[in-house]
Amino acid sequence: MNHQKSEALFAKACRYIPGGVNSPVRAFANVKEIPLFVDHADGAYLYDVDGNAYLDFICSWGPMILGHNHPLLVNGMEEVMRKGISYGLCTPDEEHLAKLICDAYRGMDMVRMVNSGTEATMSAIRIARGYTKRNKIIKFEGCYHGHSDCLLVKSGSGALTFGTPTSPGVPEDMVKHTLVCRYNDLASVKEVMEQYPDDIAAVIIEPVAGNMGVVGANASFLKGLRALCDEYHSVLIFDEVITGFRLAYGGAAQYYGITPDMACFGKIIGAGLPVGAYGGKKEIMSCVSPCGPIYQAGTLSGNPLAMHLGTLLLDYLKTHPHLYTELADKGHYLKTGIEKLLQEKGLPFQVHQCGSLLTLFFTDTAISSYDEVKTCSQDMFTTYFHTLYEEGILLAPSPYEAMFLSDAHTKEQLDYVLDKIALALDKVKRL
Ligand SMILES: *Cc1c(COP(=O)(O)O)cnc(C)c1O
């Protein structure tokens, strides 16, 4: 496959943009590639500037659940743009989208719009701290909640430690209130709660982790978290930036039947435009400025373009509930197809699938937390990625991401993908 034009653009971009990219995962450095530069996309396909076509399993990291270039969204965008682009004032779609989210999500009384997932989690944590008048938060190793300071942590040595920053520029002081526990390990949470019974403001979790590959929480683990948060009066925050309106219309909360105190959204709710949102119980959300004393603001928050597109998409998803069944069917079809190939080839790897999210882990270790995820082979993934890439199949260029399915992906396309996965696994086997 020829990537000449992408190469030239990348060389130029590196002059003006750090690493040539505006978000690190786009660099494709993990898989020893240069970034592809997109020209356009349609349905399940994405086309780069060199004219190569790819079946796209990144889907803008989740938002393009209907596939690219969907007429509903394209026409809606044109329509709203003609009225004006930005006012920094209230528009009717803000109420509409907030109502859609509150109606969809268990226990959600009020919601505030922001401009990214990072802002949503950062703000939710501030509100939880202000509401409980406590300082510490618990997060889980392997979960990603955006790049705000207090969340850029990993656990230190030992199971029960304060986090250490994962990036230069984050002072230790900024993460000293962040405690890191093990995913799917309730005992690790209980221990921390018992140690700081009066100072855990919030527990934040991806109820189905999508940022260490797809790792679902055990239902008993989530129920246990709910009970511990009730017992210690801590705020349970579900980070549904990936899972919200994707795993189910009501997100992971609906999928598991568990109601958090707060939840964060992003990705899908903007239909591809930059949006985030956080919300929860009225008692908590009433503390947010100007209703209450906790400050949080945004000049372009709730901007008319993103609100209109989000409204169109959620309205569509609400009235087409069969779409979730079909997405889960496709996910399951791919999972069982890959598992059959693994068995035929005698490869003991793990496939995790949850609705329209799927990850193939290159390890023989059963996975329930980041400890096991770390045993995956990067070399095997790189070979796998390259083989598929050359065949016109675009996966996220990292072993720790999900494959995202959309309504536009067909069974025929998935059969093609399975054919090529067979080829890729043969190469992996020869490594
Ligand atoms: C993508 C993501 C975020 C961060 O969202 P941005 O819009 O990239 O800031 C937060 N939480 C989860 C679970 C995510 O997947």
Notes on the protein architecture:
With 431 residues, this protein is α/β, with parallel strands linked by helices. It has 2 domains: 175 residues, Aspartate Aminotransferase, domain 1; 246 residues, Aspartate Aminotransferase, domain 2 (3-Layer(aba) Sandwich), CATH 3.40.640.10. It is 39% helix and 17% strand. The protein is built from 14 helices and 18 strands. Strands 4-14-13-12-9-5-8-7-6 form a 9-stranded mixed beta sheet, sandwiched between helices. It has a 4-stranded mixed beta sheet with strand order 1-2-3-17. Helix 3 runs parallel beside helix 10. The protein is globular, with a radius of gyration of 21 Å. The two termini are 22 Å apart.
Secondary-structure topology with pairs:
Layout: H1 4-16, E1 38-42, E2 45-48, E3 53-56, H2 71-83, H3 92-104, E4 110-114, H4 117-132, E5 136-140, E6 153-155, E7 161-165, H5 172-175, E8 178-181, H6 186-195, E9 200-205, E10 208-209, E11 215-216, H7 219-232, E12 235-239, H8 251-256, E13 262-265, E14 276-280, H9 282-285, H10 304-319, H11 322-345, E15 350-354, E16 357-361, H12 370-373, H13 378-390, E17 393-394, E18 403-404, H14 411-430
Parallel strand pairs: 3-17, 5-8, 5-9, 9-12, 12-13
Antiparallel strand pairs: 1-2, 2-3, 4-14, 6-7, 7-8, 10-11, 13-14, 15-16, 16-18
Helix pairs in contact: 2-10, 3-10, 6-7, 11-14, 13-14
This protein binds pyridoxal-5'-phosphate (PLP).
Pyridoxal-5'-phosphate binds next to α4.
